[in-house]
């Protein structure tokens, strides 16, 4: 069964966010979350890095609880749902759902399927944009409200399983950082007196992603952004692709290899991932640093763990420049001082973490299966192919 289609604007008020003037300090620092794309893709949103006062919210566009927020500039397709009244910046279009017609949670899960649609709609420019008019005209499958609620409940359960695996992976990665500190101490204060070297001195290369305009394609080689580097992993699920010819041209002087490290340097700076043994061809934007450890001087995994410690993150906090968009310059990253214990001591950490790696690998496999299940359920749900009954709620 396929459901009838209706536009977003027919079931909700579409609101584009805005940023209050930063010249007036009394607009900021209150209790109202000011949501940016960095707070999306995490499910329900009730907190944000920045907050507004009631005065700041009055000059902005306050949206109510259960509004569905979709990033339509830059990181297209990132989605969240408000669990308290919030204000968003101008990158986000929000659907204030008419709850007599539609389930906000149903609309939220449908919006999670829109990343590729939004990418295809956006002009092929440096910054991807889908305007409010085009966004409002998008159509959503529209079963009866009772059916929407059942579908939302099924997807929420599958989503919770997926998030549980992700949380376990994060906890295992946090354990790795704790083990590092226990064995070697804070790499910045260096209480155990290990040899210290600049990052560039223990790497064969510290560079960044492409500065050139890629040859965009509808399919081909994935092109990654800073949002694709999270939780120690490289996520190849992206809506942007380049041609194979362009990939070979852009990576000719700096090929991507196993054990290379990626480090984000703009906006959400300081996220680290290591290229594992099995990876597809990919290319990435200039806001990601490309680090090639010299294995004769430091074990790549050891450097990978060290770059995730709070001490190194503190170095990044000190070095970043800019207010609206914080940036860690490549020159400053190269000067980061890291501890370099003897290789045998580094190996002790790697050996200890081998069991953790095994657990993370197994959990990652389960997580992938849950992710596939979740996407399959969403596809079937919005095509009307799920077998539903009231007992599933």
Draw up the topology in text.
Blueprint: E1 5-7, H1 8-11, E2 12-16, E3 28-35, E4 43-45, E5 50-52, H2 54-58, E6 68-71, E7 79-82, E8 87-88, E9 92-97, H3 104-111, H4 115-121, H5 132-136, E10 139-141, H6 145-184, E11 196-198, E12 203-208, E13 216-217, E14 221-224, E15 229-230, E16 233-234, E17 241-242, H7 244-250, E18 261-264, E19 272-274, E20 283-284, E21 288-293, H8 300-307, H9 310-319, H10 330-334, E22 337-339, H11 343-383
Parallel strand pairs: 3-8, 4-7, 14-20
Antiparallel strand pairs: 1-10, 2-9, 3-5, 6-7, 6-9, 11-22, 12-21, 13-17, 14-17, 15-16, 18-19, 18-21
Helix pairs in contact: 6-11
Describe this structure in words.
This protein is α+β, with helices and mostly antiparallel strands. It folds into two domains: 5-143, Alpha-Beta Complex (Adenine-n6-DNA-methyltransferase TaqI, Chain A, domain 2); 166-362, DNA methylase specificity domains (Adenine-n6-DNA-methyltransferase TaqI, Chain A, domain 2), CATH 3.90.220. Helix content is 36%, strand content 20%. The chain contains eleven helices and 22 strands. The strands form seven sheets. A five-stranded mixed sheet has the order 2-9-6-7-4. It has a four-stranded antiparallel sheet with strand order 12-21-18-19. A four-stranded mixed sheet has the order 13-17-14-20. A hairpin with a 2-residue loop joins strand 15 and strand 16. Helix 6 packs antiparallel against helix 11 (343-383). The mean pLDDT is 88.
């Amino acid at each position: 069964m396929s459901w009838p289609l209706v536009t977003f604007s027919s079931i909700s008020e579409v609101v584009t966010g805005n940023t209050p003037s930063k010249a007036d300090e009394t607009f900021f620092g209150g209790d109202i979350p000011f949501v940016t794309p960095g707070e999306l893709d995490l499910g329900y949103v009730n907190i944000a890095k920045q907050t507004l006062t009631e005065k700041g919210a009055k000059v902005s566009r306050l949206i109510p609880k259960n509004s569905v927020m979709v990033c339509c500039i830059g990181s297209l397709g990132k989605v969240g749902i408000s669990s308290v009244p919030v204000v968003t910046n101008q990158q986000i279009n929000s659907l204030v759902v008419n709850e007599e017609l539609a389930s906000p949670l149903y609309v939220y899960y449908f919006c999670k399927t829109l990343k590729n649609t939004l990418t295809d709609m956006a002009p092929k420019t440096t910054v991807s944009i889908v305007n409010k008019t085009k966004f409002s005209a998008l159509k959503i499958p529209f079963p009866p409200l009772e059916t929407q609620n059942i579908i939302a409940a099924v997807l929420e359960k599958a989503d919770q399983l997926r998030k549980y695996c992700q949380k376990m992976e994060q906890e295992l990665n946090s354990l790795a950082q704790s083990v590092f500190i226990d064995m070697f101490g804070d790499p910045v204060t260096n209480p155990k007196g290990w040899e210290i070297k600049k990052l560039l001195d223990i790497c064969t290369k510290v560079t960044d992603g492409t500065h050139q305009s890629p040859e965009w394609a509808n399919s081909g080689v994935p092109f990654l952004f800073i949002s694709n580097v999270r939780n120690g992993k490289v996520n190849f699920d992206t809506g942007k692709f380049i041609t194979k010819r362009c990939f070979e041209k852009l990576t000719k002087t700096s090929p991507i290899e196993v054990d290379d490290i990626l480090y984000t340097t703009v906006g959400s700076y300081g996220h680290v991932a290591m290229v594992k043994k099995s990876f597809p061809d990919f290319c990435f934007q200039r806001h990601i640093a490309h680090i090639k450890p010299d294995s004769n001087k430091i074990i790549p995994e050891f450097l990978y763990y060290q770059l995730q410690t709070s001490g190194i993150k503190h170095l990044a906090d000190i070095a970043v420049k800019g207010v609206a968009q914080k940036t860690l310059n490549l020159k400053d990253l190269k000067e980061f001082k890291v501890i370099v214990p003897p290789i045998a001591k580094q190996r002790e950490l790697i050996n200890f973490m081998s069991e953790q790696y095994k657990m993370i690998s197994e959990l990652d496999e389960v997580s992938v299966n849950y992710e596939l299940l979740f996407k399959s359920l969403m596809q079937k749900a919005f095509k009307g192919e799920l077998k539903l009954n009231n007992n599933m709620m």
